[in-house]
Amino acid sequence: SQQGEEDPQALSIQEGENATMNCSYKTSINNLQWYRQNSGRGLVHLILIRSNEREKHSGRLRVTLDTSKKSSSLLITASRAADTASYFCATGGGSQGNLIFGKGTKLSVKP
Amino acid sequence: DAMVIQNPRYQVTQFGKPVTLSCSQTLNHNVMYWYQQKSSQAPKLLFHYYDKDFNNEADTPDNFQSRRPNTSFCFLDIRSPGLGDAAMYLCATSMNTGNQPQHFGDGTRLSIL
Questions:
Q1: CB–CB of B102 and A40 under 8 A?
Q2: B4 contacts A30? CB cut-off 8 A
């Protein structure tokens, strides 16, 4: 399988704390993407980091990419209860370069 | 707002009774995808359309079919639903393939009685 794998599977933190999720993948990539999924809803694209980038920021999100280790991390700073969701990484390892999603990290932020 | 809309949000059907799920988009994207997502699992790609070209994933059961009559609409047909087909079905769009960002609808939760 060329699927990405997120770690941890579940994470529970208090509001205001930082949350870090990791993703490992198996093949070479053009880019890696992170998505959020609220319970019972569709996925929302958060951020895309290209293979020649090492770090990218978007608001309270910080993504790093280490292609030598085939890994990426997503950091959410100063978390809020509204950040409670599942977070998926995705890479283009599928047929015709389609995305393959990892199993996700379920984040719970307690008020 | 440009978006991807899936109807209905919840669908209940009987074992073996054909069911159709629909998806529409106002983004004018040329690629539309259908994913199956079971509880606490990753979305699994069933197939996608690149314009009018249909691309089936190798492990998608024959029971699942799709139609795209125009750019805006795409349908998922399940010919004879089994209990194992109960899942969330997600439609997504993108401008071209090649791991572009995808825009998702809110899904249809399918239950089989």
A1: no
A2: no
Rounded to a whole number of angstroms, the distance from the CA of A57 to the nearest CA of chain B is 17
> Average model confidence (pLDDT) for chain A?
92
Instruction: Find chain B residues with C-beta within 8 A of A33's C-beta.
Output: 99, 101
CA distance B110 to chain A (A): 12
CA–CA dist B28, B5 (Å, integer) = 13
Read off the pLDDT of residues B30-85 as tens digits, 9 standing for 90 and up.
999 999 999 989 999 999 999 999 999 999 999 999 999 999 999 999 999 999 99
Mean pLDDT of chain B: 94
Q: For a pLDDT cut of 90, what percent of chain B falls above it?
A: 92
> Best mutation site among B46, B47, B99 for testing chain A: the one with the most A CBs within 10 Å?
B99
Q: Is residue B96 pLDDT above 90, yes or no?
A: no
